[in-house]
Specification:
Chain A is mainly alpha-helical and about 240 residues long. Chain A contains ten helices and no strands. In chain A, about 80% of the residues lie in helices and about 0% in strands. Helices cover about 80% and strands about 0% of the residues of chain B. Classes of the chains: A mainly alpha (about 240), B mainly alpha (about 190).
Chain lengths: ~240, ~190
């Protein structure tokens, strides 16, 4: 399984390099080749178990909830296993954010669905939900002892410092990726939306909505404003 | 009957908690404390504290805790299933649409706008995580940090872990587990 994925990935790199040499629209071709390379959905018990275990361990370390799982999942799914590419991962997070429910659960469902359809989604959802379910069930039984234990809380405090470092590391990588696109539009959007949520407490939903519309407008401007020098429709 | 009631209560919590994380909290309080009386207000506050100290989304933690309290392990499982069912249906529908239509030029434009925004939202969440780890999350926003609540052990651990991550790029799980272990050692030494 790993071998095939690696082989496909190497092929993908070759295609990308070829395209770069030809000087065509790198981004579109890149997402196209990804779709071809990864279209074949994965199957087999071993893969499903791997999927389950990957989400299980991710969820077991998702302290504080919310977005914490995203950088961790990116590390595992994008960098380690190369199951999903960076852009698609960010798309999945945007989708997860626009549906109700915990983001950790939503992102896992999406990743599982992406890799192995509905059965994949079932495995990742069980993988994500099990650790908190087991841990809270145990905590409930030892509720009083747990509340008093300063040893337990010092382990958790140490861990949350570690988690914070991992998250910062991942955020730096993601931000560098966006800057590395050398697109003024993307970089500005990132900086401005960051300032918006940090300094002006703008609602997350509103930020996503405005950015989606700006992206649409930017695309329309590129597409219709400079039609003469491009290669037309690239859908 | 209680199982059905649990399922339905947490189904509603899952359905209405947009934005994840703390967005679910008022709905959990409404369902568990005000409407059904499964928890007292004091127990609810304890539940929130436990959720912060343990992994997992607060809605799932609450579902397990309240399920355990009202009807044991089966209750915990049923409540958790109720909590994730709305997400499942809605997210899978959106995923289907995404993979069907993402090749369209207009959708490409939308996604191009969304990607940088998502990165900055994650960065914003990262700040509050760092703040919680280093200052115990006592302040309301990063502009009102109480310097005296700075936790030296956590600060040193955070800096060390960050250096290790950037330089050696290990599996993050080891970094987190290692930080937990050092935290325990520090507790016994200091």
């Amino acid at each position: 399984m790993e071998g095939t994925v690696a082989k496909l990935y190497r092929k993908y790199i070759m295609v990308v390099n070829y395209v770069k040499k030809e000087g065509q629209n790198n981004l579109t071709i890149k997402s196209l080749t990804w779709r071809i390379v990864l279209k074949k959905k994965k199957s087999g018990i071993q893969f499903f178990l791997q999927l389950f275990w990957a989400t299980f361990t991710l969820s077991a370390f998702t302290f504080g909830g919310g977005y914490v799982i995203v950088p961790l999942m990116r590390e595992k799914f994008v960098e380690k296993y190369k199951w999903i590419d960076e852009e698609e991962m960010l798309d999945l997070v945007a989708i997860a954010q626009s549906a109700p429910g915990p983001i950790a659960v939503n992102t896992s469902i999406l990743a599982g669905y992406r890799l192995a359809g509905i059965p994949g989604a079932l495995f990742t959802i069980v993988g994500t939900v099990s650790p908190p379910l087991i841990i809270i069930a145990i905590v409930f039984v030892f509720y009083d002892a747990f509340k008093e234990s300063s040893a337990v809380s010092s382990v958790l405090r140490g861990m949350s410092a570690g988690v914070a470092a991992v998250v910062v590391d991942a955020v730096v990588k993601m931000a560098l990726n966006v800057v590395g696109e050398k697109s003024v539009f993307s970089t500005c959007l990132m900086v401005l939306s960051f300032i918006g949520v940090l300094f002006f407490n703008i609602d997350v939903k509103l930020v996503l909505l405005v950015c989606a519309l700006l992206g649409l407008a930017y695309y329309a401007w590129l597409h219709f404003g400079k039609r003469d020098n491009s290669n037309g429709g690239n859908a | 009957m209680i199982l059905l009631k649990l399922f339905w209560s947490f189904f509603q919590i899952g359905l209405f908690s947009f934005g994840g994380g703390y967005a679910a909290m008022p709905f959990i309080q409404e369902q568990a404390v005000d409407i059904n009386g499964w928890l007292t207000m004091g127990e609810f506050v304890d539940l929130v504290t436990i959720s912060q100290m343990t992994p997992g989304p607060i809605a799932i933690n609450a579902a397990t805790f309240i399920g355990m309290k009202t009807s044991g392990v089966l209750g915990a499982i049923i409540a958790t299933i109720g909590c994730v069912t709305p997400s499942c249906i809605i997210v899978l529908t959106l995923a289907y649409l995404y993979y069907k239509y993402r090749g369209l030029p207009a959708i490409q434009g939308v996604l191009k706008g969304l990607r940088p925004a998502v990165v900055s939202l994650i960065a914003f969440a990262g700040i509050s995580i760092v703040q919680m780890a280093l200052f115990g999350g006592k302040s309301e926003s990063i502009f009102s940090i109480d310097i005296s609540s700075f936790d030296v052990v956590s600060g040193v651990l955070f800096a060390a872990a960050l250096v290790v991550m950037r330089r050696f790029k290990p599996n993050p799980i080891y970094v987190m587990a290692g930080a937990g272990f050092v935290g325990l050692l520090a507790f016994y030494i200091i």
